Amino acid sequence: MLDARKQNTHTLRTPDWFKTATRWTQLTFVEDDPEKYDPAFWIDVFKRTKSNAVCLSAGGYIAYYPSEVPYHYVSKYLGDKDIFGALVDAARKLDMHVMARVDPHAIHDDAAKAHPEWVMINADGTPRRHWAYPDVWVTNAYGDYNSVFMPEVVKEIVRKYDIDAVFANRWQGHGVDYSEDSARRFKDMSGHALPKKPDAEDPAWQAWVQWRRRVLTDMIAQWDDAVKAIRPHASFIPNMGGASLMEFDLSVVARHCPFLVVDHQGRKGLELGWSAGRNGKRIRATFPDRPVVLITSIGPEEEYRWKDAVTSGEEMQLWINDGTAHGLYAWFTKFNGVVPDKRWVEPVADAFGLQAAVEPVLESMKPTAEIAVVDPSTTLRHWAPEERHSAEKHDLGLYHALVEARLPFELLSDQVLTAENLDRFKLIILANASCLSDAQNAAIRAYVDRGGSVIASYETSLRDEFGKKRDEFGLADVLGARYVSGPRGIVKNTYVALSGDHPINRGFDGAERIMGGTRLIHAEPSADSKTPFLYVPDFPDLPMEEVYPREAPKGAAVIARETGWGGRTVYIPWNIGEIFWEVFAVDHARLIANAVHWALGKTPRVTVKGKGVIDLALRESGEGLALSLFNLTNPMMMKGPIRDNYVLAAQTVSVEIPEGRSVAKAWLVVADRAASFSLGNGRAQVEVPGIDRLEVLHLTWK
């Protein structure tokens, strides 16, 4: 049977196989599936969802095929079956791509006793039992288990089965390993003892972050080389989690990962639906031309981990198709091959059907936008992964303000601030890129000298790449702001007052002052800068009789300037992104939108008018453009799961027509019909009728 797989020539793949792997089914087996699950049900799911690729559990913690690797635990329910191999064959008969999933994060007693060096060690020197299932042990991701044992497992799977890739889940480790081996290797490289806790100010912690980064990226290369030595077209595909690529050596990722997988499977707590698209933008921020696959769970994504439950169909479709809107490939995952609740099948099939409908238009185009939010990897790398969400509030607030303002935008990683990458955008936004190197600051300065515009806030450029505070902003000349003191806070009951007549302070009719931030920096504006807002000096918030200002407004709260090179800069020396994310004050949304429109210095290339909240994505080719309009309007927008889908009212889209072109056709891809349009002042105006979940407006030029 295995030889037949090897010789089945119609399933041979090319190195570009992943470009047509756009709709994925993932089935994660549980140990008793060999006896209980129904393979016919899953083959039918492949067909109903129009899946053209599948990811199947193969081995690692448990093998679902007859493994011969010593200490590779085989399911006790497998018997003489090979459920992994059988589904591989079934998928290949449907002309599907196949990826084998391995999970190396835990081992059983026999392996732990024979190889204690494979077990992760706690800070107190004890071997680490699994936090959720104490009968097994957590593996040391940084030692021989992942560098010696798992490559043998990977090679066995690739030799035996007709697959295109190996996908690893939970391969990056779970915190600091305090084994003697890790301690010795770490000290040899850094000179430090292992850090006892995450602490961005601790040199040992920072050194450990770098050491871990090197070990993990070396592992990507090792596993990928092992795969390609057997099947040259195939790859090792690491699960990148829900973050950006800050934890990896980008050169290794560039060489070994032809596409990237984001594992942020759904909304959790007070999370917005646009988070799905943001995941893809964050990966694309580093590798704009590399396909990105978004994993979606059919169950709720809460800390209590109801992994065998089913969330609402609308919630699944929200997550999958917001990814669709931003050009991400769809992937749904089901844990446990036995299906006691089948309510997920139809919603996933509908979402995948919508993905299939828009793929022919979107796949030929590249993401374009005039605006980029800089993803501050250099800053976020100083935070432990479990604490990073606090640092990201600045970026999340700016992100949501741009969504509300209906402005298409991309993300750009501060790891790749090349002239080519920067010059794709008219405006870049640094929500709180506090840590920037001299080289990164120089790249931004050169971008401004070439006519680019910048919006920055709070501590941006106040620290170097190692987190050390500077005496002056690294971008002081760019922002027209000299650092004086701060930050200070948390400060309550703060305000900023409108000052003079400037586009940034328009639209606040009837107000002399609006809410300020809670963390403040004192900055002195340069002579060529304007100050549309000034700080209102602090005054008490209790007793109520004392709640009044004692002094007139003073001190720059917004600094705006014309660069002289064709661009504009805005610096907001307080935590506007963070506080907007926490409070969602409408005045802060207006201030951000005003700053963006002024800094652009022109009417945006695309404007959309109408009611509701829409997540926009713009893609283009030489022949035309496609504007994705994803409907986020729902009373459950900020706390899921969504129960129902609220159809959006008609929208008016205005698009700037490229010089020398005219509109040949306006087409509504989902509705599958032509759209009426009018022309004037170098723009096309298109009426888009009510939007259910997603509509894609496709304009072609002549």
Would you mind describing this structure in some detail?
This protein is of the alpha/beta class. It has three domains: 257 residues, Alpha-Beta Barrel (TIM Barrel); 230 residues, Rossmann fold; 96 residues, Golgi alpha-mannosidase II (Immunoglobulin-like). Helix content is 29%, strand content 23%. The chain contains 20 helices and 31 strands. The strands form six sheets. The chain has a nine-stranded mixed sheet with strand order 13-12-14-15-22-21-20-17-18. Helix 15 packs across helix 19. The longest helix has 28 residues. The N terminus is likely disordered.
Itemize the secondary structure elements and their pairings.
Elements: H1 2-6, E1 23-28, H2 33-36, H3 39-48, E2 53-60, H4 83-93, E3 97-103, E4 106-107, H5 109-114, E5 137-138, H6 144-160, E6 165-168, H7 180-190, H8 203-230, E7 235-238, H9 250-256, E8 260-262, H10 275-284, E9 292-297, H11 313-325, E10 329-335, H12 345-362, E11 366-367, E12 371-375, H13 377-380, H14 388-391, H15 393-404, E13 409-413, H16 419-422, E14 427-430, H17 438-449, E15 453-457, H18 476-479, E16 481-488, E17 495-498, E18 513-515, E19 520-525, E20 529-536, E21 556-562, E22 568-572, H19 576-583, H20 586-600, E23 606-609, E24 614-621, E25 624-631, E26 651-656, E27 663-668, E28 673-674, E29 677-680, E30 683-688, E31 694-701
Parallel strand pairs: 1-2, 1-10, 2-3, 3-6, 6-7, 8-9, 9-10, 12-13, 12-14, 14-15, 15-22
Antiparallel strand pairs: 4-5, 11-24, 16-19, 17-18, 17-20, 20-21, 21-22, 23-26, 24-25, 25-31, 26-30, 27-28, 27-31, 29-30
Helix pairs in contact: 6-8, 8-9, 10-11, 11-12, 15-19, 15-20
